[in-house]
Write a sequence for this structure.
C-alpha cells in the first residue's frame, strides 16, 4: 500500500488486508459473510420519555456500568446454555479495572466460573469478611464491631434478636463500669439464660470454637490458621456442596497466599489482620499473586494491555464509551517534550479569568493527536484478540440539539428495544450532530467519513462515525453490513432496584412487631456538649410568615412524597444538591453516599441527579457563583468546631454554659473584588423561602470564619442562596 502523505512518527500505519475469494486452483471459495462484530448499546431513549441529557454532564450515570455487566454476563450464560461456546472460550477485556468487580459479581450470580489477573472485590462478599472478623477478634478482643459480625457469621450463626441481646448486654456493662475489660464480655455466660434454645446451642458452640482458636493460634503458623478456618470449620465443604457459592472457593487461595507472604516476612497474626484491614478499608485490589488456580474452564477477565499476544474465540470489550484520563494542567508542574518543565503559577487577582499554561495550550493539538493515535493502537490490540466473534459495548447520550431530530426518528419505531436498522438511524443522527458541533456547520450524512471523529478519549468516539457509514442510501436501502447492532435492555436493572426496595420494606414489616413490644427504658437526659448551627434558629421567628416566597412544586417533591416512611427526604436531596454544587468547582464527579439513593429506582435517581445538577448550575452562573470562581481562596463544605463560652451570645441565642458548635459551611471564599473581605454562602433547597429562621446559623458561620481567618466580623458577608429559584439574600 502506497501512502499518499507522510504520517507523523507517533501515528501507526496499517496495510489493507483483503481475504482471497478463490482457492489455489482458482475455484471460488464459499465464504461465510455472517457478521462477526457485534455492538451492544444502552441508551437513555429506552426510558418512557425521551429526556434531554447534556453529553458533557459532570456526573456519570453509574447505573450503566451495572447494566453493561449484567448484559455481558447474561450473553455468556446464553452461550454456555446453548453449548455454542464454553466459559474458557470467552474473555472480557477492560481498558480500566474500576468496574471489574461488577462483572465478578454478576458472573458469580449466574454460576459462571471466571479467572482474573487481579482480584478487585476481595471483600465484596461474606466468606472473606467472616474470616477477617474472626481473625480480628482473636487479635483485638476489645473490638465490639468484630464481635457483632462474628455472632452474625456462620461460625456462630445467632439470630438477629440473639445478636441484639448480646450487644445490648455488652453496652450495658461498659456503661455501668467504664473500667470493665471488654475481652471479659465476649461469650459471657450471664447472657445465656436470655437466649432461645437454638441461639443458646449456637452461642455455646461459638464460644467453644473461639476459645479453642485462641489457644491454637499461639502454636501454629499463619497459613495453618487459614487452613484451620477453611478446611476444619466447614467453609470448604459449603463451596463443594452448594453451586451458588462454589465460586468463592478460590478466595481461600488468595487469603492463603496473603498469609504466606506475611509469614515469609517474619510477621505475625496481628500484622496479617492489619494487612487485611488496609485492603478492606482502601478497597485495594490483589495483583501479582502467582496462584495456580485450577480453572481450566473459566471466563478470562483481564486488561487490554495484559491481553497482548493472546487470542480467544469470543472477546467482549466493555466500557467503549468510557472516557480515559485527559491531559490537564492541574498539577503544580507541567512537562512538555519540546520545552521541558514549567510551573503552573496562579493568575493575578486582577485577571478576569484563569489562564492555562502557555506551553500546554501551545502543544495541546499535538497532545490530542498523539493521544488519539495511542487510543487507536489500544483499540486495535483489543479487537484483534477475537478469533470468531467480537462484542463491543457502550452507551450513547443525547444532547439538547439532537433531541428533536431523534424524537422524530424514534416516533416511527415499534418498541424501545431497537432493531439493528433502527439503531443505525439513531447513531447516524447522533454522529451528524456531534460533527456539526465540532465544525460549527450543519452537516448531512453524506459528509460523514471514517476519518472524522470526536473521540473524547473513548473507543466509541472512533467507532460511532464508522458505524453510521452503513446507514440506508438515497433509495432507502441498507447496504450489506459487517456488524450487528443490539440494544441492551433496561428492564432487568429496574427490576433489581424495585426488588431491593421491596425487600428492605419487607424486613421493616417483619421486625415491626418486635420493636412495638419492646419495653421503653427511661434514661437520664444528658445535655449535649455539641450543637449544630441549624439548631440555633430563633423559634419565635420561625412561625412568622410575613414576606415569604413559596416555589411551585416540582417533580422532586413528588418523588419525596412517594416514600411514606421518609426513606428519601428533603435532607437527602439537599445533600445531593450540595454535592453537585461542590463538584462544579472541583471539576470532579459529585461524591454521593450510596445510602442516600439506594431506595430510588433508576428513573427516580436520574430525575434527582438532573434536578440537583440544574440547581447547582443555577448558582454557578449567578453573580455570587462567578465571584467564587474568580476567588484566590475558596473552600467548599468546610468543617469547623467553634467553642462558645458561658454567658456569650450568637445572634439572639444566649448560652448559659460552655458548648461547641459543630458545623459545615457550604461555601466560603475571599472576595476577588476586595481582598480583605470574605463571603459565606449557605445553599438552601427549601420550597418556602423564609430567611429569618437562618439568621443565627449564618451568625455562627460568620463568627467561625472571623476566628480562623483572624479578621473582624464586619469583614464577612453572609448570603443565603435558594437553589430552586436562584434568589440570594444577604444576612
Amino acid at each position: 500500500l502506497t501512502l499518499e502523505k507522510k504520517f507523523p512518527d507517533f501515528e501507526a500505519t496499517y496495510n489493507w488486508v483483503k481475504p482471497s475469494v478463490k482457492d489455489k486452483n482458482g475455484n471460488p471459495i464459499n465464504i461465510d459473510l455472517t457478521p462477526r462484530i457485534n455492538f451492544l448499546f444502552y441508551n437513555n431513549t429506552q426510558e418512557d420519555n425521551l429526556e434531554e441529557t447534556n453529553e458533557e454532564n459532570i456526573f456519570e450515570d453509574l447505573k450503566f456500568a451495572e447494566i453493561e455487566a449484567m448484559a455481558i454476563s447474561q450473553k455468556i450464560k446464553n452461550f454456555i446454555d446453548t453449548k455454542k461456546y464454553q466459559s474458557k472460550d470467552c474473555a472480557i477485556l477492560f481498558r480500566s479495572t474500576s468496574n471489574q468487580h461488577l462483572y465478578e459479581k454478576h458472573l458469580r450470580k449466574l454460576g459462571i466460573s471466571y479467572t482474573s489477573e487481579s482480584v478487585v472485590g476481595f471483600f465484596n462478599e461474606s466468606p472473606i469478611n467472616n474470616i477477617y472478623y474472626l481473625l480480628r477478634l482473636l487479635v483485638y478482643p476489645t473490638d465490639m464491631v468484630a464481635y457483632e459480625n462474628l455472632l452474625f457469621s456462620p461460625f456462630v450463626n445467632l439470630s438477629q434478636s440473639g445478636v441484639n441481646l448480646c450487644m445490648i448486654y455488652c453496652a450495658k456493662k461498659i456503661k455501668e463500669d467504664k473500667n470493665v475489660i471488654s475481652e471479659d464480655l465476649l461469650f459471657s455466660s450471664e447472657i445465656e439464660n436470655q437466649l432461645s434454645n437454638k441461639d443458646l446451642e449456637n452461642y455455646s458452640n461459638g464460644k467453644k470454637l473461639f476459645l479453642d482458636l485462641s489457644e491454637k493460634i499461639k502454636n501454629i503458623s499463619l497459613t495453618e490458621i487459614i487452613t484451620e478456618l477453611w478446611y476444619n470449620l466447614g467453609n470448604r465443604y459449603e463451596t463443594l456442596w452448594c453451586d451458588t457459592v462454589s465460586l468463592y472457593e478460590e478466595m481461600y487461595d488468595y487469603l492463603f497466599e496473603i498469609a504466606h507472604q506475611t509469614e515469609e516476612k517474619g510477621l505475625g497474626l496481628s500484622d496479617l489482620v492489619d494487612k487485611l484491614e488496609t485492603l478492606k478499608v482502601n478497597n485495594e485490589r490483589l495483583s501479582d499473586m502467582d496462584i495456580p488456580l485450577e480453572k481450566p474452564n473459566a471466563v478470562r477477565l483481564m486488561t487490554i494491555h495484559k491481553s497482548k499476544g493472546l487470542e480467544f474465540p469470543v472477546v467482549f470489550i466493555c466500557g467503549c464509551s468510557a472516557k480515559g484520563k485527559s491531559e490537564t494542567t492541574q498539577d503544580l508542574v507541567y512537562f512538555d517534550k519540546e520545552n521541558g518543565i514549567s510551573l503552573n503559577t496562579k493568575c493575578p487577582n486582577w485577571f478576569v479569568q484563569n489562564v492555562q499554561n502557555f506551553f500546554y495550550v501551545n502543544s495541546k493539538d499535538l497532545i490530542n493527536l498523539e493521544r488519539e493515535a495511542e487510543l487507536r493502537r489500544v483499540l486495535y490490540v483489543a479487537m484483534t484478540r477475537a478469533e470468531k466473534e467480537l462484542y463491543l459495548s457502550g452507551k450513547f447520550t443525547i444532547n439538547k440539539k439532537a433531541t428533536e431530530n431523534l424524537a422524530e426518528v424514534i416516533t416511527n419505531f415499534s418498541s424501545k428495544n431497537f432493531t439493528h436498522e433502527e439503531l443505525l438511524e439513531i447513531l447516524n443522527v447522533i454522529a451528524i450532530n456531534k460533527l456539526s458541533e465540532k465544525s460549527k456547520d450543519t452537516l448531512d450524512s453524506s459528509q460523514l467519513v471514517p476519518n472524522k471523529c470526536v473521540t473524547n478519549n473513548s473507543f466509541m468516539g472512533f467507532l460511532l462515525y464508522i458505524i453510521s457509514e452503513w446507514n440506508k442510501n438515497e433509495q432507502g436501502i441498507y447496504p450489506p453490513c459487517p456488524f450487528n447492532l443490539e440494544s441492551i435492555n433496561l428492564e432487568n436493572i429496574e427490576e433489581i432496584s424495585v426488588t431491593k426496595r421491596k425487600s428492605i420494606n419487607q424486613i421493616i414489616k417483619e421486625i415491626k412487631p418486635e420493636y412495638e413490644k419492646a419495653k421503653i427504658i427511661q434514661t437520664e437526659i444528658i445535655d449535649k456538649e455539641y450543637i449544630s448551627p441549624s439548631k440555633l434558629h430563633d423559634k419565635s421567628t420561625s412561625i412568622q410568615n410575613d414576606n415569604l416566597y413559596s416555589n411551585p412544586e416540582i417533580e422532586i417533591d413528588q418523588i419525596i412524597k412517594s416514600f411514606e416512611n421518609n426513606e428519601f427526604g428533603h435532607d437527602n436531596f439537599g445533600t445531593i444538591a450540595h454535592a453537585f454544587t461542590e463538584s462544579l468547582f472541583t471539576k470532579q464527579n459529585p461524591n454521593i453516599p450510596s445510602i442516600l439513593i439506594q431506595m430510588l429506582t433508576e428513573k427516580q435517581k436520574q430525575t434527582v441527579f438532573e434536578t440537583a445538577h440544574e440547581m447547582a448550575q443555577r448558582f454557578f452562573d449567578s453573580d455570587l457563583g462567578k465571584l467564587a470562581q474568580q476567588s484566590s481562596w475558596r473552600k467548599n463544605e468546610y468543617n469547623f468546631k467553634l467553642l462558645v463560652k458561658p454567658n456569650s451570645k450568637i445572634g439572639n441565642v444566649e448560652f448559659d454554659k460552655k458548648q461547641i458548635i459543630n458545623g459545615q459551611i457550604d461555601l466560603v471564599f475571599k472576595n476577588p473584588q476586595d481582598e480583605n473581605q470574605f463571603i459565606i454562602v449557605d445553599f438552601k433547597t427549601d420550597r418556602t423561602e423564609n430567611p429569618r429562621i437562618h439568621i443565627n446559623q449564618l451568625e455562627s458561620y460568620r463568627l467561625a470564619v472571623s476566628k480562623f481567618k483572624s479578621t473582624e466580623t464586619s469583614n464577612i458577608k453572609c448570603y443565603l442562596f435558594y437553589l430552586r429559584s436562584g434568589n440570594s439574600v444577604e444576612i
